[in-house]
Amino acid sequence: AQDLKDSFLKSRDKFNSYLDSAPSIGFPPGDGADARREIFESFLWGVFAHANPECRRRVNRWESQLYFPDLQAQFDVILINFLGAVSAMANACRKMLEAGVA
Question: Among candidates 70, 69, 44, 72, which has minimal Cα distance to 56?
Fold first, then answer.
């Protein structure tokens, strides 16, 4: 049971560490893309879900930059990693439910 909980926590922690690391392409310092989390949250909350005005303004500002396609590509890569983490966490939860672990 504890190994399933550890598996869930490991997936979550690994993804959070990934989000807090620098993107694979450098962007101008202080432009809101110093960490993958900033890119992920800006696109997620500024374009695709909810309506966070600060995130939307950031993405609007990025759209005028030559490196905008690189930011979009970074978001896509981050999203793929997010889906992998969610899948791993869901799998751990499913196994916990099947084992009757609370």
Answer: 44
Q: Which residues of 62-78 are buried (b: 16+ CB within 10 A; e: fewer)?
A: beeeebeebbeebbeeb
The dihedral region occupied by 17, where left means phi > 0, alpha psi between -120 and 50, and beta the remainder, is alpha
The tens digit of pLDDT for each residue in 44-90 reads: 999 998 789 999 999 999 999 999 999 999 999 999 999 999 999 99
- Chain centroid to CA 20: 9
pTM of the full structure: 0.88
Token pair belonging to 55: 């995130």
Instruction: Tell me how far apart the 2 most distant CA atoms of the chain are, in Å.
Output: 52
Which two three-digit tokens encode residue 90? 């869901």
| Integer Cα distance of 10 and 67 in angstroms | 33
